[in-house]
Amino acid sequence: MDFEAKLDQARSRFTNEIANNISLYDLPASIGRLYGTIFFSEDPVTLDELSRQTGMSKTSMSTGVRTLADANMIEKTWRKGVRKDLYQTDPDWYKSFSTVFIKRWSEASELNLKALRIAKAELEEVREKAGAEIAERAQADIDKLEAAEAYYEWLNEVISLFETDKIYELVPKKEVPAKDV
């Protein structure tokens, strides 16, 4: 049995799945493959090494690495005698998820709440100044917006749980069993 091929197959399987699902982080599949390559590297890697391993241009590679670093998915590291930047995955998957979750959902929540409040003010004006039938329809819309507003306020509380790490008091991180060496 060719165990090297089995090793590569298992790594490819996980990397491909990361590439398929990284869109949840609003990132392209190529960045997912880049992450998988760094994840399975046995040592920190340079942009040149990553470019050779993935076939991506150095410009694309640099952009991808910056994107992954901004999402706290990889980190720059240092090794004596190496002048180029080295990269490795950040072992804290919780931190990278939290970073992306907070960024994406707080932006969406803020924009939606702003639009909601403007629409609500407009509907309140319609309700006050329009005839009975239109005022009734405006009130029905206001009621719907108030339900949505309650949801966004709740979502902001969830975001706060992630920002303050209190989420881990409610849902503790899973412990990774120690390995005997």
TrEMBL record:
GO molecular function: DNA binding
Keywords for the protein's UniProt record, in alphabetical order: Coiled coil, DNA-binding, Transcription, Transcription regulation
Classification via InterPro entries: HTH-GbsR_regulator (IPR052362), MJ1563 (IPR026282), WH-like_DNA-bd_sf (IPR036388), WH_DNA-bd_sf (IPR036390)
Record flagged with keyword Transcription: yes
Domain of life of the source: Bacteria
Coiled-coil ranges per UniProt: 106-136
Gene3D superfamilies xrefs: Winged helix-like DNA-binding domain superfamily/Winged helix DNA-binding domain
Entry's family note: Belongs to the GbsR family.
Name of this chain's protein: HTH-type transcriptional regulator
